[in-house]
Amino acid sequence: MRLPLRTAGRWLVAGVMGRLRGRSRRLPDREAADAWLDARARRRPPRAAWLAPFLLFAGLRVPSFFEPHWYTDEAGYATAARAALQGRVLYAGIWTNKPPLQIWTVAAAVRLFGYGEAGLHAFTFGSGVAALAAVAWIAQRLLPTRRALLCAGAAAVLLGLPFFDAELALPESLLLAPATWSGALVLEGLRTSGSRRWLWTLGAGVLIGIALGYQQTELADAGAFGLALVVAPQASAAEVGAYAAAGAGTTLAWLAPAVRLAGARTVASALVGFYGQYAAASARGPIGLAVLAAAMVAVLAGTVLGRRFPAQAWMPWLWTGADLGVAALIHRPYPHLLLPAVAPAVLAGASLPAPRVRRLPMLAGTLVLALLALSSGVESEALLAYGIWYRQLVAAAALPPPSLMRALLGPQTAADVAATRFIRRAGLAGCPAVVWSADAWPYLTGDLSLELPTAPIYNDIELDGQAGTVARVRTLTPPVIVVSRGALRRWSELRPLLRRSYSLAFTREPVQVYVLRGRDEGC
């Protein structure tokens, strides 16, 4: 006969207790055994155990402070931030399709620490610590302690390692702190009562407004949190209104200065028109969109059906579904699209097992969204580099040289460093230049003046087209043009101008530096 697990445990405990007390093998009464088992289950790890996830996260993030300049989007944000610090008006004098807080935060890092990756990654390290603190705070309030610790540990690993580019100065990395705390406050608000709920909903609204200042896709989280407050029986209409008003007011606070300086039409074109075109360019076909819509409907149906359960049983699943839906809809191979889903996913996973029938639509819909979002992938290149870096650190008992990480992250990184050294040796630093490459780092590392509307070059081509961008370069006739072979093959209309007016001055695969013929020394 197969015994239930608890009954077998009770018999084992009873036998041990009898032996320790010098009694016969007779079983103690059921209540005594149950009381002993329950007391063991209630034993909590020491408070110091909560330091473990944060120490794990910090240890995993160490290589991020030694990364070279390699990620193209970081270069674009840092270049725009430098231009803003030099007085160019965001969206008018320097173009970007990101909300202002993204550029202002990178500008703060540039002002404080320069263009080094360590300074940029100090900000994302702080954002990761804050997000991990939100996960730990809400997990220990909603879950048994050991499960909460496991939840925080899983978040530390997923945020500490570069699975989803969490170490890079990207919008998703920087919005992680306010977005995760906003969700945590909504969860806390749904489990409290009385006047304190006003504080949680107001705080959640302010924080989601801040998160929107980094990336437009945070509208998904804003909607998910609002929906959670609407369907939860314990939340009142006034509290929903407080959340919405706080979110709208915070959004207006960062949007109004940009609109005043650049104009409403210009800002709307960058943040709404261009980003909408960007998302639509890679959207799934009719069948994929239909599956995506059905999965979202299933998540929403599960939310409505389960709304009378405790909030921790359904709200993290709604939150996870919203973030996975964004990645599935944009449908591009960018791992950072999955980063906002990390915190809610570990909280949702911690609410398992024992799904109830009314939760099955939510679980099924979230699973389908996760499968659709797999197109985002993970950052295998950086993961491999981190693994080798850790191994070298242990083997040599010393920090690996910077050249190791440059070599691990590809030839473009090392070639950019060599090209920058040539530019400075040749007295070309400070010259107006065009970096005809997906990698815009030479603008910063070589102290070259950006004359085009934005960087990297693919953004200029999106704005003006290839012919229009080449015509602009021909009109500018910059003293220096830095090209990568890949970009020159893809956007080849620049070749005639290079052959006619420029001389090849430096090459290291895949980077070449061209200098205007007849140029006097210096700029």
Question: How does this model look, in words?
Answer:
The chain has three domains: 5-38, no CATH class; 58-376, no CATH class; 411-516. Helices cover 65% and strands 5% of the residues. It is built from 24 helices and five strands. Strands 2-1-3-5-4 form a five-stranded mixed β-sheet. Helix 10 packs parallel to helix 12 (237-262). The longest helix has 26 residues, at 117-142. The radius of gyration is 27 Å and the shape is globular. The model is unreliable at 1-6, 8-30 and 36-42 (pLDDT under 50).
Strands, helices and their partners?
Layout lengths: L4 H16 L9 H13 L8 H11 L10 H14 L14 H14 L3 H26 L2 H16 L10 H4 L1 H15 L5 H17 L6 H13 L5 H26 L1 H18 L4 H20 L9 H16 L11 H9 L9 H14 L6 H17 L5 H7 L2 H15 L6 E5 L4 H5 L3 E2 L6 H20 L3 E5 H6 L4 H7 E7 L2 E6 L7
Parallel strand pairs: 1-2, 1-3
Antiparallel strand pairs: 3-5, 4-5
Helix pairs in contact: 1-2, 3-6, 3-7, 4-5, 5-6, 6-7, 6-9, 7-16, 9-10, 9-11, 10-12, 11-12, 11-15, 12-13, 14-15, 14-17, 15-16, 15-17
